[in-house]
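Table S2 (continued). Query chain:
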Amino acid sequence: MTVRTGWRSTSPSGWTSWARAFLALACVTALVVTSACSHGSKPEGPPRADYSTLTAAELSQRQFYSAFEAVQTLRPNWLSQRGSGDPVQVYVDDNHVGGVEVLKSIRISSVGQMRHIDGIQAPARYGAGHEGGVILVSTRAVRH
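Corresponding output:
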């Protein structure tokens, strides 16, 4: 039952029809704005670098002769020994080849990617003697 009193129409609940319409419109607007702002938003700024990996793209940005020069320049913390005093171990294509001095003999043109595993994770993967960390070198595929 609607009672007309002067210029406004009042429902039994006490709300005027224009007030209900305004409230409904406000709710719909808030819902649309909230959903539009939450979808497809991108984090601001450049993407964060992955400091545990050196990609071929990063290696090609500068002139390096050896893998050692690249690591020494771009990720010097990979070469530092921490805690246990064990040297950093190097693996080339999943084969253990020795310590960081081996990196001096690996030409940068043959490197596809290098990855560092810290001294906490390395012993769990590779066993005792790897407490200094591991540098994994993946070579580029040879094209014929």
